[in-house]
Amino acid sequence: MPEIWTDRKELHAAFITREIEKGGARFESVTDPRNADGALKALENNRSIISGYFDRPELTLCMAKQVHGRQVLYTDKPGLAGEADGLVTDRPGLAVGVLVADCAALLLADRENKVVAAVHAGWRGAIAGIIPEAVRQMENIGAEPDLIQAYISPCISLKAFEVGEEVASQFPERFVDRSGHKPHVDLQGFIYEEILKNGISGPSVIRDTACTVRNEKLLHSHRRDGFRSGRMLGVVFVTE
Fold first, then answer.
1. What confidence score (pLDDT) does residue 9 get?
2. N or C: which end of the chain has fewer CB within 10 A?
3. How far is CA 158 from the centre of its chain?
4. Dihedral over Cα of 19, 22, 25, 30: its sign
C-alpha cells in the first residue's frame, strides 16, 4: 500500500496490508506473547518491516499492548508502552503503530505542530470514547483540531458486522441496520462521526471503506479467519 499523505515530506503514514507477506514478512502481536522477551522480539520484527517499507533503516517504533479500551498514552521513546489502544507523540522520527484485523486503525496528524497519533479503534474503544481522548491528548502537546488530518483504515463493514442486541444497543440507532435477522453496525460510520464531533473537518479525513471480511487477498479478518488471522499495521511519524 502506498503512503497515505505525500504532499509534505515531513509526514509519513501508511496502512500496511497483506501485500508485504508476498515477501515473507508478517507482523507479530506485542499483545499476546507469553513473556516480555517475546514481546520485544515481536516489536523488533515489526520495526524491521516498517523500516524496510519506508526505506529508513534507523526508524524507531513504539507500540502498546492493545486491550480494546479507551486508554491513550503519550510516548517519546521507542519500545513497549504498556496497556493502551492509542499512542500520541511529538517526537520527530518516532513511529507509533497499531495492529488491526477487523477493527479500524485511525491515524491522526497535525503536521504543522508535528503531533501524531495511532489509534486502535474497535467497537469497544470507539463507544468508550477513545477518539475524543486521542484528540485531547494531541491537543495537550500542541496540536490544533482544525489542523489535524485523519485516516480511517479498512475495517469490518456494515454488511459483515452482524452483532447481538447487547452490542447494537450501545450505538446510536442511525448506525444500526435492523432489516435482517440480527442487527448490523456501521463501525466506520460511527468513527467518522466521532472524528467530526471533535473538531476535525470532513475534507481532512480519508476513509478507506474496503471491508476486511470481504477482501481476503488483501486484508486480514478475525471475524473471517478466527485465531488464524494475521494483522495489518497502521503507522505514522513525522521528521524534522
1. 83
2. C
3. 18
4. positive
- Predicted TM-score of the model (pTM): 0.97
Q: At what angle do helices 187-197 and 130-140 cross, to 10 degrees?
A: 30
Task: Please report whether residue 156 resides in a domain.
Answer: yes
Q: What is the CATH number of the domain that holds 88?
A: 3.60.140.10
Distance CA 220, CA 206 (A): 20
What is the rounded CA–CA span in Å between residue 140 and residue 198?
14
The three-class DSSP label of residue 234 is strand
CB-based contact 94:77 (threshold 8 Å): yes
Helix (H, G, I), strand (E, B) or coil at 116: strand
Domain contains 5: no
Q: Sort strands 60-65 and 79-83 into parallel, antiparallel or unpaired.
A: parallel
**SS3 category, 163:** coil
Sign, Cα dihedral of 67, 3, 76, 89: negative
User: For the segment 132-188, what is each residue's pLDDT rounded down to a tens digit?
Assistant: 999 999 999 999 999 999 999 999 999 999 999 999 999 999 999 999 999 999 999
Structural domain contains residue 2:
no
Question: What's the maximum distance between 2 C-alpha atoms anywhere in the chain?
Answer: 53
Backbone angles phi, psi at 196, to 5 degrees: -65, -40
pLDDT in tens, 34-90: 888 999 999 999 999 999 999 999 999 999 999 999 999 999 999 999 999 999 999
Domain extent, residue 146, equals 11-238
